[in-house]
Specification:
The chain is elongated. By secondary structure, the protein is mostly helical. The protein is about 75% helix and about 0% strand.
């Protein structure tokens, strides 16, 4: 059963919103939503994933040829991952990305 959130929408919709603008909506929801663990987790995971992809893109830009080639596929990978995570949140699933979810748990504890 889905519960209400501080945004006034069901938790699965708030989970989707956490991913919409990446770390921006992730951080905003971490600040606003203090009680709903589902929303907080997706907000934290969104922040870690989008922030990590952003940093990885910058790092790959400094690596000649191989980094540039890998960097060409990074937006596609990020887009597919973004859609998948929003779909999982909408379905009410607290899908945990390997390794990333551990960092998300630490980030969630900080807020």
């Amino acid at each position: 059963m889905m519960s209400e959130t501080k945004l006034g929408v069901s938790e699965n919709i708030a989970g989707v919103i956490a991913y919409v603008l990446g770390f921006i909506t992730g951080i905003i929801l971490l600040i606003i939503e203090k009680e709903n663990k589902f929303v907080r987790f997706h907000a934290a995971q969104s922040t870690v994933v989008s922030g990590g992809l952003f940093i990885l893109g910058i790092i790959l830009g400094f690596i000649p040829i191989i980094g540039w080639l890998i960097g060409l596929f990074l937006p596609l990978v990020g887009f597919v991952l973004w859609l998948y995570l929003m779909f999982m949140a909408y379905k009410g699933n607290m899908y945990r990305l390997p390794v990333i979810a551990d960092y998300a748990d630490k980030l969630e504890a900080m807020f």
